[in-house]
Structures are given as structure tokens and as C-alpha cells.
Amino acid sequence: MKIEIYSDSEEMGRRAAAIGAEVIRRAIAERGGANIIVATGASQFTVLGSLIKEPDIDWTKVTGFHLDEYLGLPISHPASFRGYLKERFVDHVPLAAFHYVDGEAEPEAEIGRLSELIRRFPIDVAFIGVGENAHIAFNDPPADFETEMPYLIVELDEACRRQQHGEGWFPTLEDVPKRAISMSVRQILKSSAIVCSVPDERKADAVRKAVEGPVTRDAPASILQQHGNTTLVLDKAAASQLVRQN
User: Fold this and answer.
1) Considering its fold, how many domains does the chain have in total?
2) How large a percentage of the chain has pLDDT more than 70?
């Protein structure tokens, strides 16, 4: 795992976008197309804002996949990740295709549809974040490190739900859904490159566990230590608990 630390979240986001953009350009040059995963949440605001401005990317040759979505939440809800991605990314670039996770569909059928699709599109780069509980996607602790299913139904733990409320996505904790469809840990790890962006001091403990702790289901992001091409892009606040910061 490579670690890069920047002064603030704006610089962090620009750098994360630049790293991923280079992977996309290379894939298009070498194979005629690129497949990507994009994440949502507050940590990805500057990443996606910078990615859509990256030069010399033929987006018509890029296919995108969505990490996760709440079960039962309509796209019109302010916290919908489909709505987030449409507004901040998909509507800004002429993608070949973008495959949303539809939280309003019948869950097992949606998992089957997405799993069949992503098996046909090997991922070149995954843009992801880390939650306050060290989750990746919605794989809360103790995360399933074994399943080969590309997507699965997950139960959201209280720490995850409190983060969603605390970031202002829902008016009360009770309004935060308790279940979601998430890309699995092993599917994320199949990406040729992973760009993981983490801003904010409130995620410093999760970053420390991911980087300096043991690989454990209780800190799902720690599994990134076993991926051969992950870049963890942090701002100084998120890196504040790391023993080594270079």
C-alpha cells in the first residue's frame, strides 16, 4: 500500500483523481476501453469534482460501476447514492455506460443482475473511501472477507448509520436505513488499481487501523494491505494518528 498525505481535502481530491485518471488513460490506450468503480459520500466530493475535469480522457470508452446503495431508498431522496453519482459524475461525462445499484429493485434479482454484469468488465481502477468504522463500501465490521459474490445484502452497523446521520444525509438516526446492497470486499480487491481517499480527523483512527493494524474483519479497510496496487490518499487530519507519515 502506497500512502500519500496532502495538506487539505482539496489537494487530496485532486491527487486521487489524477492517479485514477492516469490508469483510465492507460487502459484506453492499451485495450480500447476502461472499467471503473466510483464511490460516494463526503470523502468523494473533491475526487469526483476533479475527475470530471481531468483532460484527455475519452469517456465514451469508459464503463462505470456503483459501489453500494441503501435498500428501499428512492433516487429522489437526498441521501440516495444513485442521485449523488448522477448529479456529481454521470451527468458530467459521456460514459459508455454506468451501472447503478438500484436499491428499489427486488434485492436478490438486483444482486444477480449486477454480479453478472461486473464479471464481464474487469475493473481497471476503483475509487473508494473508508468509513469511520473502517468499512469499505458498506462492508461494516466484521466484514465478509471470503465471499466471491460480487454484490451482497449487508446489515449496517450503528457506527455506520451514525456517520450517515452525522454527515447530514438523514434528519435523524432512525431515518437511516438498516440494510443496503454493497459490492463485496473480494470484488473490490479484484480491481487492478485502487485509489482510496480519506479526509478528516474523524477518520484518523480508521486510517491507523487500516495501515498499521493487523488485517482483520473488524477493520475491513485493513484488507487493502494485501492488495498490490493500492494508493491511500489522505489529508493531514486523516493521517494524524499514523506513526509513520512519509
Assistant:
1) 1
2) 99
